[in-house]
Amino acid sequence: MQFKKSTLTLSVAALGLGLVSAPSFATGKINFVSWGGSYTASQVKACIEPYTAATGVEFNVIDYNGGLAEIKTQVEAGNIQWDIIDQTPQDAIRGCDEGLYMELDHSVWEPSPDGTPATDDFVDGALGDCYVGNISWATVPAFDASKIKGDEKPATMADFWDVEKFPGRRGLRKVPRVNLEWALMADGVANEAIYSILATKEGQDRAFAKLDEIKDHVVWWEAGAQPPQMLADGEVVMTTAYNGRLFNAMYKEGKPFEIMWGPQVFDIDTYVVVKGSPNTAAAIEFLKFCTSAEALADTTNYISYGPLRKSSSQFVNPDILPHLPTAPENFKTALTYDINFWADNVDDLTERFNSWLAQ
Fold first, then answer.
1. How many CB atoms lie within 10 A of CB 48?
2. Using one digit for the tens of pLDDT, what is the confidence trace for 40-60?
């Protein structure tokens, strides 16, 4: 199965956007921070390499595991090293509220190919005071089909929780986000009621009680590269993971994994620019290119994450569409991650989650 295509056309298109002037903005290499692995590789191929070829601007590509701790340390020390960060929207909102990121003028982004302003071309929720969205993705449960006995395959979070019917260890990310939603799903809560229930102490108690049921069977992961490796090594039979990491393991490495799309939690990723960065102007010029309809579509040739501009769909390889979280068959029972709930509650629930882990 071949999805990859050349980025040469994007490099040439960049010249047509006037991006050759970008080196005059840069004081040094742009420090671009993202999540590593196949996701960062897709950004390098679809954005960084063609932009560098067209403009001469160079980048340092840095991996991290999310959150605000590292950038807070830089700001507090008066030693800002990062320019552009790929962040979850709730961290982008929190960082914006705390004055870590610059407010963005969304009128500067490239219009769609038919001239539609970018502000009308991005999907709802993709633009915030301090962030511009880039991709949609999903956290999904998955399993190693070679390890599942019998004809019935797991399909729901109730199945994920059922260690008697489907024996073996489970992988979960070592954070409360999404795990609490899935715990309520496994306990029979309908998607439309999850966040209203989770907003109450009783609902949070219910979610943690459900997590208690499988706690002794869980292997906790932190970096996105870990879950596919845990499946491949036989450390777990089922795990939660980012759909793009699973796509690469399944279709590029031939692993016998299967995604359970029914319980997917749908989310987006965003770009922020650090306030006080010495490369602010150069960072904005780069993001004009990287958030264009064509560049966002080109990302799908390297990883199965969906672009957040409506006009990008015309540039997406049809072979990749069934593997995107937003494909109709994959999306029909998806839960959309509530960024506002987590922006308001992440600190308290993380503190409780860490205390629960230590018990």
1. 21
2. 999 999 999 999 999 999 999
